[in-house]
Write a structure and sequence with these properties.
By secondary structure, the protein is mainly α. The chain contains 21 helices and no strands. The radius of gyration is 22 Å and the shape is globular. It starts with a helix and ends with a helix.
């Protein structure tokens, strides 16, 4: 089994290999990710059978958590586009916030939605609205896509009851209420940093917002567009159901009622209900329930397979021991609140999952906290947030969220994905850690 610094070399080489094979040689990213998974597993010494099993398990695990959600999300997106619902929603948002603040509004929507909803699911649900607003304002899709992505990402990594932060809070032994309050504070500069990157940097890379049917064509076909309330229902209802599930899990005892909320608020069930509401936007017809649904399935297929391959690579990197090795090396240095941040960032970059980083890092750093002088309630809460900030850095090819955010935005080039999504998460994570450090200097 490969060990020591060679694991770090292998990680760097795998990232370079992905970019070169896709950008220079134009090999489809699905095949690139699977080929990289094989090479990393074999070169790390995992063995042929273990490598294949890990690839299959990683693919299956990713499909279990996000596959059907992507399918339903794409069906909703197609119906919203072809019925004109996304134009109605875009106009409603622009009337409320104004055109000059529409990108900020997108970040804020993501910020709120991702507190109870996984960022992957949130992006799938909200991306049609982001693309519609970009289309209406003649902006690059990257601006609204990255604004939405970073808005979702901030609270996903920093604010319970998202599973990662809440698990981290439990392992560290921090006060949950304190983590929520301080997490909301820290997530504000993180979102603003992501917003800055979206408007100042990602804006330089133009991607045409892919809204297939024009506003005028829809009006000519159906004579009128759906109402504002009905247009929002396919998005608002699933989000509300998922939020209700999160609240119920915190306040209800085990039993039939909690089981009902866990069922109805599961992302798969919630998005399925959203599909039902989407069908109400236009007159019921064979075209809607047949052709439009098939279009949604075809759109989802490519995204699902690429996302699954990214899950395979993440599983192989975890199995190779890269993250564990880097965590052990860094743990020998006394770096105050920056130590949990660095370890979480290394683990996140090495294996792809923010949730895994949020769960693994506290197990590594918890025994060191007395030596670091981080034992007060405020200090423990800030340790959790430092880990959350590190778990943002960085989202790249081994992270399923990278593929969801880039593909739904319309970013097909991996190199451009690194310039936009990956660099945005780096900026966002560093901004969050800066906020944690400032709070630490003042409160500890």
């Amino acid at each position: 089994m490969l060990a020591g610094p060679w694991l770090v070399v292998l990680l760097i080489a795998s990232i370079i290999f992905i970019i070169v094979m896709n950008v220079k040689f134009k090999l489809h990213i699905f095949l690139v990710l699977l080929l990289t998974s094989y090479l990393v597993g074999l070169l790390a010494g995992m063995g042929p059978v273990e490598t294949v099993d890990t690839i299959a398990a990683g693919f299956g695990s990713t499909m279990k958590s996000i596959g059907i959600v992507i399918l339903f999300g794409c069906i909703i997106a197609v119906i919203l586009e072809r019925s004109g619902g996304i134009f109605v929603m875009a106009d409603a948002v622009l009337r409320v916030v104004g055109k000059t603040r529409s990108v900020l509004a997108t970040s804020i929507i993501g910020f709120m939605v991702s507190i109870p909803v996984y960022c992957d699911s949130g992006f799938v649900i909200l991306s049609p609205l982001a693309k519609a607003m970009a289309k209406r304002l003649k902006y690059s899709a990257t601006v609204f896509g990255i604004a939405l992505s970073t808005g979702l990402y901030a609270t996903h990594c920093l604010v319970p009851p998202t599973p990662g932060p809440i698990a981290c809070t439990g392992i560290i032994g921090a006060d949950l209420g304190l983590v929520i309050v301080l997490g909301l504070v820290v997530s504000v500069p993180a979102v603003l940093a992501g917003l800055w990157y979206a408007t100042r940097v990602a804006n330089k890379y133009y991607i045409e917002p892919k809204v297939e049917v024009s506003h005028e064509e829809i009006k000519a076909k159906y004579k009128r567009l759906p109402s504002t309330a009905r247009s929002f229902m396919p998005i608002v209802v699933p989000i509300t159901l998922i939020c209700t599930r999160s609240v119920a899990s915190m306040i209800l005892p085990d039993g039939a009622l909690l089981g009902f909320f866990n069922f109805i608020g599961h992302p798969i069930t919630a998005l399925f209900v959203g599909v039902g509401f989407a069908f109400t936007l236009v007159p019921f017809s064979k075209e809607v329930i047949g052709d439009w649904v098939e279009k949604g399935l075809l759109t989802a297929a490519v995204i699902i397979f690429i996302t699954g391959a990214g899950g395979s690579l993440g599983a192989v990197l975890r199995g190779s021991g890269i993250g564990g090795y880097l965590g052990e090396v860094l743990s020998s240095y006394h770096l105050w609140l920056f130590l949990p941040f660095i370890i979480a960032a290394v683990l996140k970059t090495a294996q792809g999952s923010s949730t895994v980083s949020l769960i693994t890092t506290p197990a590594i750093v918890a025994p060191m906290l007395p030596a670091l002088g981080l034992t007060t309630p405020v200090a423990l809460a800030l340790v959790v947030l430092a880990i959350g900030a590190g778990s943002m850095v960085v989202s790249h090819a081994n992270d399923s969220y990278f593929w969801v955010a880039t593909r739904f935005t319309g970013i097909d080039d991996v190199g451009l994905g690194y310039k936009t999504q990956t660099m945005a998460t780096l900026v966002e994570g560093v901004a969050a850690m800066a906020a944690v450090a400032v709070l630490g200097a003042v409160l500890i």
